[in-house]
Amino acid sequence: MASRVRIGILGAGTVGGAVHDLIVDGHLARFGVEAEVVKVFTRSPESKPRYRVSPELFTTDAAAVTGHPDVDIVVEVLGAGGPEDLSAQKEWVVDALRNSKSVVTANKALLVAHGEEIWAAARECGREVRFEACVGGGIPIIGPLTQSLSAERPAAVYGLLNGTSNYILTEMSQRGRSYEDALASAQALGYAEADPDADVSGRDAEAKLLLLSSITFGMRLQPGVIHRKGIERLHAIDFLYAERKGRSTIKSVALARNAGGALEAMVTPMMVPERHPIAGIDGVTNALFFKGQVSDGGAPDANDWDYVFAGPGAGGGATAVAVLGDVHALVASSGDTPFLPVESIVPGVDAVRSEDDLRASFYVRFVVRDQSGIVGELCQIFGDKQINVSEIWQLEHGAEELESLVGTGKGGAAPEELLPFVITLEETSVGQLRQALERIVQKDFVLAEPLWLPIWKA
Ligand code: HSE
């Protein structure tokens, strides 16, 4: 027998429009779900393509969706905004729950900022809040981690959680494009958030990682607590060093792992060896690697993986598929069992490792004005901080590569005066590295803030 479900949508942007289209086109019908769009909230209905066909579906009053007597499920796809937007969105979601509607959201920033209140309202009202689309676009991640793999004991989750960053880094790596050029393409292709800073600074991936940390390790963290570094300062020459000297590439990795009872979490560009499958995940594709202790018999090493999820991490169609998957799950579950995965997990960690205490081997790229004795001075400073230098890498650079480094540094040096080179460091802490670099940047010969990245621990 077919199940009928009536949907109200908050948001009619790229994702909202795609959700609407999939419903109208009957994409859940083959599973016996007859879905119908009852009301759509948007601030500017006249600009939406479907408004011309069905103007009566649209409203500029969110309460006309969250309180609509015929709506069973509210789909919230408004997208991230500032704190005031998030606060209003939270009120609408809570209002929907209080009106006995379950909610499907694609808004990770909303859950990170107001998750506690939303879960509390869901529990109180006996309704569900589902959020598959919040992490990894169309890839099923939340469902597998909280249901299919609920008997696992998590050791680590890591992966590529921002399609825009992965696209930009792939373009820089494979085509030698500049960061600015690759970002412009990502925007033209519609991958980047309205504010691309959320993508390239790592904030979007951070929000996703915080949700994953919550459902895997029971750690509910706020933005700003974990180590986060964006991709903005990477340069095409970093990929040359990674490839030619390090047999690696550079990926923006989001990582959370149980490090002996403390959560070690970060979002940062990282040198990853070409032999690791994460190195081959290119373009806008996202991937998540999950390491469990049950599947490998309890081995403590959290650096490999047991399960891999990969697929389209951005784009309206993929995100809408995840949203409709949640709608389908709600119809199948009848929607009255609060879906509160955070409470169902076995706590694995009880503290967060501070940024300064994170340990790794590092890649550090310098741009200096060439003169004798530079390497000696740098090694002296690293030595004073008990940091072991591993290797020094230096490539020949053509005029064009050097030209593109002008302006990254101080002192208005001409291209022929610039000397880029890399020093790799054996395992040390972020805190010790920062202290060493604080001394190094005071040297006159240092023309640009050194770029440092962790090296994936094999
Ligand atoms: N803009 C995001 C990305 C998709 O590039 O992955 C939504 O989180």
Briefly say what this structure is:
The chain has 458 residues and is of the alpha/beta class. It has helices spanning 14-24, 63-66, 83-98, 108-125, 142-148, 163-175, 179-188, 197-200, 203-217, 236-245, 316-333, 341-344, 374-384, 399-405, 430-440; strands at residues 3-10, 33-41, 58-59, 73-76, 102-105, 129-130, 154-160, 227-228, 248-259, 262-273, 285-292, 307-312, 351-352, 359-369, 389-393, 418-429, 451-455. The site of L-homoserine (HSE) has 11 residues, from helix 6.
Describe this structure as you would to a colleague.
There is one protein chain. With 458 residues, this protein is α/β, with parallel strands linked by helices. It is built from 15 helices and 17 strands.
Secondary structure elements and pairings:
Layout (H helix, E strand, L loop, with lengths): L2 E8 L3 H11 L8 E9 L16 E2 L3 H4 L6 E4 L6 H16 L3 E4 L2 H18 L3 E2 L11 H7 L5 E7 L2 H13 L3 H10 L8 H4 L2 H15 L9 E2 L7 H10 L2 E12 L2 E12 L11 E8 L14 E6 L3 H18 L7 H4 L6 E2 L6 E11 L4 H11 L4 E5 L5 H7 L12 E12 H11 L10 E5 L3
Parallel strand pairs: 1-2, 1-4, 2-3, 4-5, 5-6, 8-10, 10-13
Antiparallel strand pairs: 7-9, 7-11, 9-10, 11-12, 14-16, 14-17, 15-16
Bound molecules: L-homoserine.
L-homoserine binds next to helix 6.
